[in-house]
User: Which sequence fits this backbone?
C-alpha cells in the first residue's frame, strides 16, 4: 500500500505524455507523483505506434495539435541525441497515386506553410521513383517532407521517466486510480493500493482520460479506441524503404504508410478501425490481409519479404478534431485528453503546455537550479554503436561480448544494465523494450529461455 503520500502534483498515466509531464514538472520546485495502473511505463498506446517524429505539416492549421506537434518536434529533436534516444532524419515522401491526389499536393504544401513548415517540395513521378525505386507502378508525383524522422518511442518514454525519477518524482506503478475527490486545498486520489493527496492533478490517462475526467464532474468527451494494426518486415527489407512513404491523408487519419524503423526493420500500417473494447490490441485476419493488399500495390517487393512480427495499438480518438486539453483553476486540474496519433511527437510540448496552463491558473512555478544532467539511455538503434561491436567496452567488461539474443545481437551486459536501471522492467516485454531482446527474426525461439532465466535470476536475487 502507498503510505500517506502527499505531493504538489499527481500525474495519472505513465505513457509517453504522462512521463514527459512528470519530467517537466519535476524540473520545477514541486513534489511530483506519477501514477500508472500497469507494471511499467509506456506499456499501453505508447509502446505500439509507428514511431514517426512528425513535422506537423499536415495538421489542422491553427489547432492546438498543430502548435504542439511543431513545438514537440523541435524539443524532441534536440532532446533525443542528448538523452541517447535513437532518431534518424530519413525524411518522408507523400505519394500521389491518382489525379485527385496529385491535385491535392499544392494544397498540402500550402497547408504545411500554414502550419509553419516551409521545407516541403513537390516532385514529379521520375523523382519519386529515383527516391524510392521499389514503389509499385502508377505513382504520379509526390510531396517531399525532408525533416520527418523515425525515432524510438520506447526509449523516449523511458528517458522521460528515468529523468523524472532522478529529479525526485515518485513513480507508483501498479496503482490504478479508482476515485478522485477535489477538496478546497487538496485533492484526494484513491488508488487500488492506497491514497495520495495532492494540490494539482494532471490527467494523462490516455484511453481512460474521459473516465477520470467524469470523476471530476465534467462531461466533455468520450474516448473511442481506434485500432491501428501494423506488420513488421525482416531487416533484409530495409533497403526497400530509404525513407517514410506516406499516402495522401484523408479525414480518417494519416493512412497506411511504409516506414523504416530505428531497429533496422520496415513496417507497413497502420489500419484505422473504431472499436468498443479499450483493451483490444489483438491483430485481426481482416486487418492484416487488408494491409498486405495495400502493401502489394504500394511496394510489391516488400510483401515478398519475411514478416517478423505484427502488432496493434489503440489511438484515443474522440468526437473532437483537436486534442482535448484544458485547465480548471478552481479544481487545480489539467486535462490532457484525446492525444490520438501524434502524442509521441507532441509529448515534450504537451509537458511545456502544462506548465503554461498551471501558470495561467495562478500557480507560481520556479525552475530548479540543482537538476541532475539528462540521462544517457542505452542505445538500441541500428544506426548507432552497440555494445557487441565495441571492442574497448568488451575488454573492460566481457559481459558486453556475450551475446544472448543473436537475431538482435543483445548482450548479457545490456540485459544486466536494463535490470539494474532507474526504471527497471517488470517482465520480458519490458526487457524487450529496453534492449531489443526477443524482437528479432526468431521472436525469442532461440534466446527466450535464456532471457527468461536472466530475468528470473534477477527477480530472485541470484546473479
Ligand atoms: C497505430 C498508432 C500509430 C501511431 N503513430 C504515431 C507516430 O508515428 N508518431 C506520433 O507522434 N504518435 C503516434 N501515435 C500516437 C501516440 O502513440 C499516442 O498519441 C501516445 O502514445 C499517447 O500517449 P499517452 O501517454 O497519452 O497514452 P498511453 O500510452 O495510452 O498512456 C496512458 C497511460 O495511462 C494509464 N492509465 C489509464 N487509466 C488509468 C488509471 N485509472 N489509473 C492509473 N493509470 C491509468 C494507462 O495504463 C496507460 O499506461 C500512434 C498511435 C497509434 C495507436
Assistant:
Amino acid at each position: 500500500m502507498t503510505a500517506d503520500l502527499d505531493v504538489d502534483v499527481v500525474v495519472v498515466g505513465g505513457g509517453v505524455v504522462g512521463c514527459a509531464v512528470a519530467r517537466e514538472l519535476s524540473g520545477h520546485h514541486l513534489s511530483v507523483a506519477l501514477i500508472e495502473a500497469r507494471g511499467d511505463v509506456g506499456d499501453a498506446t505508447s509502446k505500439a505506434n509507428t514511431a514517426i517524429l512528425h513535422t506537423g505539416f499536415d495538421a489542422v492549421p491553427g489547432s492546438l495539435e498543430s502548435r504542439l506537434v511543431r513545438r514537440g518536434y523541435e524539443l524532441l529533436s534536440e532532446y533525443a541525441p542528448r538523452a541517447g534516444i535513437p532518431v534518424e532524419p530519413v525524411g518522408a515522401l507523400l505519394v500521389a497515386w491518382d489525379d485527385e491526389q496529385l491535385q491535392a499536393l499544392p494544397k498540402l504544401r500550402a497547408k504545411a506553410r500554414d502550419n509553419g513548415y516551409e521545407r516541403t517540395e513537390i516532385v514529379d513521378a521520375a523523382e519519386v521513383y529515383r527516391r524510392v525505386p521499389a514503389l509499385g507502378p502508377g505513382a504520379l508525383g509526390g510531396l517531399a517532407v525532408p525533416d520527418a524522422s523515425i525515432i524510438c518511442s520506447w526509449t523516449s518514454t523511458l528517458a522521460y521517466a528515468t529523468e523524472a525519477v532522478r529529479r525526485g518524482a515518485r513513480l507508483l506503478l501498479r496503482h490504478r486510480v479508482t476515485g478522485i475527490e477535489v477538496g478546497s486545498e487538496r485533492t484526494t486520489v484513491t488508488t487500488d493500493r492506497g491514497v495520495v493527496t495532492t494540490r494539482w492533478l494532471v490527467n494523462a490517462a490516455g484511453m481512460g482520460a474521459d473516465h477520470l475526467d467524469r470523476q471530476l464532474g465534467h462531461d466533455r468527451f468520450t474516448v473511442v479506441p481506434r485500432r491501428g494494426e501494423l506488420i513488421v518486415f525482416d531487416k533484409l527489407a530495409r533497403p526497400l524503404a530509404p525513407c517514410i512513404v506516406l499516402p495522401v491523408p484523408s479525414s480518417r487519419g494519416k493512412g497506411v504508410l511504409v516506414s523504416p524503423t530505428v531497429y533496422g526493420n520496415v513496417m507497413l500500417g497502420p489500419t484505422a478501425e473504431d472499436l468498443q473494447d479499450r483493451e483490444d490490441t489483438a491483430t485481426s485476419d481482416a486487418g492484416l490481409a487488408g494491409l498486405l493488399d495495400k502493401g502489394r500495390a504500394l511496394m510489391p517487393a516488400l510483401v515478398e519479404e519475411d514478416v517478423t512480427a505484427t502488432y496493434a495499438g489503440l489511438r484515443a480518438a474522440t468526437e473532437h478534431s483537436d486534442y482535448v486539453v484544458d485547465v480548471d483553476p478552481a479544481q487545480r486540474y489539467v486535462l490532457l485528453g484525446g492525444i490520438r496519433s501524434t502524442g509521441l511527437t507532441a509529448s515534450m510540448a504537451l509537458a511545456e503546455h502544462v506548465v503554461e496552463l498551471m501558470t495561467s491558473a495562478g500557480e507560481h512555478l520556479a525552475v530548479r537550479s540543482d537538476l541532475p544532467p539528462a540521462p544517457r539511455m542505452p542505445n538500441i538503434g541500428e544506426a548507432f554503436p552497440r555494445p557487441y561491436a565495441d571492442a574497448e567496452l568488451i575488454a573492460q567488461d566481457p559481459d558486453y561480448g556475450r551475446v544472448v539474443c543473436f537475431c538482435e545481437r543483445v548482450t548479457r551486459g545490456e540485459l544486466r544494465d536494463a535490470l539494474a536501471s532507474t526504471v527497471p522492467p517488470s517482465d520480458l516485454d519490458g526487457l524487450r523494450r529496453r534492449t531489443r531482446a526477443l524482437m528479432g527474426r526468431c521472436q525469442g525461439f532461440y534466446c527466450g529461455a535464456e532471457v527468461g532465466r536472466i530475468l528470473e535470476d534477477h527477480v530472485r536475487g541470484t546473479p
Observations:
- The two ends are 29 Å apart (CA to CA).
- The first strand starts at residue 2 and ends at 12.
